[in-house]
Amino acid sequence: MAAPEKPQSAPKTAQFAVGVRGYNQRQVDERLAELTKEIREASRSRDEAVATSSDLSKALAYAQKELAETKAALARMSSSPSGAGAMAERVRMMMQLAEEEIADLRSAAEADAASTRDQADKYAHETRRTADKLAKDAEEERARLLSAAKAEIEKLNAAAGAKRVEQAAAAERARKEADAAAEAAAAALREEADRKVADELAARKKAFEEEFARKKQETEAALAAAQAQQATADQNRKLALDLRAKVAERIAATDVAVKEAMRLLAPVDEAAPANGDRKPSPAPVSAPKSAAASAAPAAPAPAKA
C-alpha cells in the first residue's frame, strides 16, 4: 500500500504593501483567506492520514488473521504423516516472510501516520500562530485607522461647523440685501401706483367738473325756460281774470236788461182809467240779444308751460 502524500509546508508570511493610511486592507483580507484555506487543507490532510492509519491497521489485522489461518493449516499439514517434512521448511519460510512483511507494513504505516500527524500539527500550529499574529496586526491597524478616522471626522466636523457659520452669515447678508432690494422695488411700485392713482383721480375730477358744468348749463337753461313759461302763465292768468270780470259785468248788464224787458212785456190792466183817457200802448220792445251774442269774445287759452 502506497504511503499518503505529505502536506506542503506553510508558506512564509507575505509582506503587505503599505498604503496611505496603513496596510492595504484588500491584501490583508486575501492573505487571511489563503491562511484559512491552508488550515482547512491541513486539517483535511490530517484526517486523511488518520484514515490511512486506520486502513493500515485493518490491513495488519487481516494479515495477522491470514497468518493465523496459515499456521493452523501448517499445523494440520504437520500432523499429516504424508509429505509433512518436505513442506515444513517451505511453510516456515513463507510464514517468516509474511511476518516480516507485516512488521514492515505496520512500522511504515505507524511512521507515516506519526510523521503526517506531526507535520499536520506543526503546520496547524504555525498557521494558527501566523493567523493570530495577522489578526493582532489587523486589530492594531484597525484601531489606528479608527483613531485616525475619528480625528479626521472631528477635523471635518470643525471645518464643517466653521463653513456652516460662514454660510449662515453669507445667507443673512444675502437676505438683508434681498430685503433691501424688495423694499426699494416695493417703494418704486408704490410710487408708480400713487402716480397712476393721482392721474386717474385728476382725469375723473376733470370729467366730473366738465359734466357738472354741462349739467349746470342745462339746469340754468331749463330754469330760464321754466321762468319764462311761469311769466307767460302769469300773464295769461291776468288776462283771464280781466276777461272774467268783463264777462261778469256784461252778464250783470244783460240780467238787468232782461228784467227790464220782462217788466215792459208784462200784460196791461184792461180797466180804463177814470178820466176815460186811454194810454197809448207802448211800442213793442225787441227781445234783447242773447248773453252769448252780447258777450265779448272769449279770451285765448293760456299758453302751456
Automatic annotation (TrEMBL):
Extract the ranges annotated as region (Disordered).
108-136, 213-235, 268-305
Report biased composition (Low complexity) as residue ranges. Answer: 220-233, 284-305
Q: Which UniProt keywords apply?
A: Coiled coil
Q: Which residues form a coiled coil?
A: 25-52
Basic and acidic residues biased stretches: 118-136
Instruction: Please state what the protein is called.
Output: Cell division protein DivIVA
